[in-house]
Amino acid sequence: MAVQPGAMNAAAVHPHCSDVFTAPSGAPLPLDSGGVIDGLEIAYTTYGRLNAERSNAVLVCHALTGDQHVASRHPITGRPGWWANVVGPGLPLDPEHHFIICSNVVGGCMGSTGPSSINPATGDVWGLAFPMITIADMVRAQAMLITALGIERLFAVVGGSLGGMQVLQWASDYPERLFAAVCIAAAPRHSAQNIAFHEVGRQAIMADPDWRGGAYASLGVKPEKGLAVARMAAHITYLSEAGLQRKFGRELQRDGLSWGFDADFQVESYLRHQGSSFVDRFDANSYLYITRAVDYFDLAAAHGGVLASAFTRARDVRFCVFSFTSDWLYPTAESRGIVRALNAAGVRASFVEIDTDKGHDAFFLDEPVLRAALSGFIGAAASARGRP
Amino acid sequence: MSAPIRADFREILRLVEPGSRVLDVGCGEGALLELLSRENGVDGRGIEISPQGVSACLARGLSVIQGDADRDLSDFPTQAFDYVILSQTLQAVQRPKHVLAELLRIGRRAVVSLPNFGHWRVRIDLLLHGRMPVTGELPEPWWSTPNIHLCTVRDFAGLCDDLGFVIDRSAALAKGKPARPFDPSRALENWRAEAAIFLLSRPGAA
Fold first, then answer.
1. Handedness of CA A18, A19, A20, A21 (dihedral sign)
2. What is the per-residue pLDDT across A269-309, written as a single tens digit (0 to 9) for each?
3. In CATH, what number does B7-201 get?
4. Contacts of A379 in chain B (CB under 8 A)
5. Cα(A93)–Cα(A149) distance, integer angstroms
6. Are A58 and A163 in contact (CB under 8 A)?
7. Residues 6+ away with beta carbon under 8 Å from B51
8. Is A372–B65 a contact, with Cβ atoms under 8 angstroms apart?
9. Is-contact B153 B193, C-beta < 8 A?
């Protein structure tokens, strides 16, 4: 098994190891859609060291367009890791105490097997021949990686948004492999409004002539315009009306109006930038596959319509759920529903609602209340686990 | 060494059986829950409205849900706890009768403490000065106090009667003194108690 740690990268924001796990032959990843993935590859990054008891491993699950570079410089954008204010020395997830693992989801485009990988059967890029994947598949792949790393039980699994959904899936499918779980700004299912926004994004991609029925990679083009529009529409759902108003108001880019369709308003310019920078680091087909996986997510439906039934085996997991007041993508009511189900299942659950106008994206940003509460929860759980 | 235990907390420690499952509604920074876990080995959970309180509880290793007693008790399953504690909070909720009923839906027993508006100092204030009293138990003026549903211990006993609840134990509290068992229906006791603690159950349930 290819689990040798990669070279330490001292130039990164935090020292880390990046590597790719390859599933051994004869151990394909079974998929909810019925098929399997042979020769699964999962790209991952680790921070800190696994202790002798193997009791300090924390799996961080990334969001829709995130990746394994949680606290180290991104190889394409050169920007610091997406959660560099949570993972790092003196932060809630401190590599001094924890062995922190973050892996790119199956279906992703940062080194894990996905639609932009080579299909071993044809020697060509998968494209739309790639099988449909689900959040349960992503978690199953992570569990394979964790096993390969020699970890029986994770100290914690932590994630926000799609990452939070993976946390819920972990608690449902592998509760005996978890000591603690942190679910931030997530929901137990995708609502009609959320599916609707995803559909707008997918249609934008598929309407781009350069998408070429998903076969753009072998034709040497990229549906950049469509993917950028998808990102722009989605990005609005990650913010809040109050936050946008505070940040941009009706401020103009230049002194006056252009009397045309240039980006007159700062908010337009900001969104265009979000769109155009996204296409450099993300694959359009991965966007289709992962948004679909999120749309298909409905944890209660998979348990006879009763969400609490998903957590009946998770009684020994210490749970903490976070929401943000201005998050209209996964509003507080969704998190309260999760907490109600955890309570009904007899799980030790805590819940914190953080007051902010930064919307869904607040979980990436420097939110002191989130950091303090997360530190408290993780620290107390570590003591309960008998660790520093 | 730790600070001396508050008289009301000491009384709650006496009322709650060791090893039981406890929900503390309005648990603040978790001082009582921590005490109950340490001294009585209870399996404790809390509800707290302020994010600061919730954060402090998390750092103490307590399981706490940010929420509002008026609205969020319905999230808890029926008869999931041995005790539900409502300490110095009933007078601050919007719907005291609803909250009280919820306590004994969620828990086998309820422990409720409250300031007594029938205390002699309150009555004298009102009688002599004709103004809403400001006391140690009720330190805010009427226009800014969170205590919107004040009652006397006799009123409280009456509400328990209406709800069909049994008062299994009751103790009067006065500043700096240990809790003293008392009968809330007796007129003289209603003059004397500054605050009180009650252990409640449904008839035949406890």
1. negative
2. 999 999 999 999 999 999 999 999 999 999 999 999 999 99
3. 3.40.50.150
4. 59
5. 19
6. no
7. A352, A353, A354, A355, A369, A373, B66
8. no
9. yes
Distances (CA, A) of A382 to A55, A281, A377, B58, B117: 9, 36, 9, 12, 45
For the four alpha carbons of A203, A209, A214 and A220, in that order, the dihedral sign comes to negative
pLDDT digits (tens, 9 = 90+) for B141-176: 999 999 999 999 999 999 999 999 999 999 999 877
The answer to whether the CB of B104 falls within 8 A of the CB of B110 is yes
Give yes or no for a contact between A134 and A144, defined as CB atoms under 8 angstroms apart: no
Region class of A213: left (phi > 0), else alpha (psi between -120 and 50), else beta: left
Task: State the Cα–Cα distance between residues A278 and A287, nearest whole angstrom.
Answer: 11
Sign of the torsion formed by the C-alpha atoms of B40, B41, B43 and B47 = positive
Burial A264-273 (b: 16+ CB within 10 A, else e): bbebbbbbee
Tokens coding B190:
């209603």
Domain limits, chain A: 17-189+299-384, 193-294
Q: Catalytic annotation on A161?
A: yes
Looking at 1.10.3660.10, 3.90.1280.20, 1.10.1740.110, 3.40.50.1000, the CATH number of the domain A193-294 comes to 1.10.1740.110
Structure tokens given for A86 = 């949570």
Is B60 part of the contact surface with chain A (CB cutoff 8 Å)? yes
For domain A17-189+299-384, give the fold: Rossmann fold (3.40.50)
> Does residue A373 sit at the B interface (CB-CB below 8 Å)?
yes
Query: Chain A closest CA to B184's CA: distance in Å?
Result: 35
Token pair, residue B200, equals: 């409640």
Residue A360 known to be catalytic: yes
Q: How many CA atoms lie within 13 A of A202 on its CB side?
A: 18
Which chain A residues touch B67 with a CB distance below 8 Å?
336, 351
Of A346, A353, A380, the CB nearest to B58: A380
Say which of B45, B75, B80 has its CB closest to residue A336: B75
Q: What 3-state class would DSSP assign to A164?
A: helix
Give the count of beta carbons closer than 10 Å to the beta carbon of residue B77: 14
Percent of chain A with pLDDT over 90: 94
